[in-house]
Amino acid sequence: MAIAMFASLLSASPVLAHGDVTPQTIDTSSIPQLGAEWSDTNPYREVKGDLRTEILRIGSSAYGSNCARCHGLEGISGGIAPDLRTLAPDYDGDEWYVYRVKNGAVRNGAVYMPKMTEHLNQEALWAIRSWLESIATDIN
């Protein structure tokens, strides 16, 4: 019985690392609204207290719903996509992050990452960045 089940799994359609993912909307009404124009740097980086806790809660939830499938649970990459915990918490890291969430990633015509700005607002994406900074590690 177990062998038959295993064989059926092997004969099933292939599992794709970056298969179709439907981005999940995130309620950001409890954190400062940023408007339509994108900030060059993380506007939530210096926020403290209860508001910081709320930003990190939203960021963690948004990451888990929209990023973890490829970038790893709890921000720990399994090698499929870059480990976002290693992004510098400064302009250079923010610049790369904004470029990627706005433009996504395409290789040889295959979408490896969708344009996240088409699915998540600036507040959700900066909350994700803030959460990633809160768990950052130097693994180099």
Written account of the structure:
The chain is mainly α. The chain has a domain at 49-135: Orthogonal Bundle (Cytochrome Bc1 Complex, Chain D, domain 2). It has five helices and two strands, in the order H-H-H-H-E-E-H. It has helices at residues 2-11, 49-66, 68-71, 91-103, 122-134, and strands spanning 105-107, 110-113. Strands 1-2 form a two-stranded antiparallel sheet. Strand 1 and strand 2 form a beta hairpin. The longest helix has 18 residues, at 49-66. It is globular and about 45 Å long. Residues 4-18 have low confidence and may be disordered.
* Content-based structural category: mainly alpha
CATH architectural arrangement of the domain at 49-135? Orthogonal Bundle
Largest sheet: 2 strands, antiparallel
Determine the N-to-C terminus distance.
46 Å
CATH superfamily of the domain at 49-135: Cytochrome c-like domain
Mean residue pLDDT: 85
What spatial order of strands do you see in the largest sheet?
1-2
- How many strand units? 2
User: For the CA atoms, what is the radius of gyration?
Assistant: 17 Å
| Unreliable runs | 4-18
How would you sum up the global shape? globular
Sheet-strand content, in percent, reads: 5-15%
The count of helical stretches stands at 5
Stated plainly, the CATH topology of the domain at 49-135 is called Cytochrome Bc1 Complex, Chain D, domain 2
Order of helices and strands: HHHHEEH
**Percentage of residues assigned to helices:** 40-55%
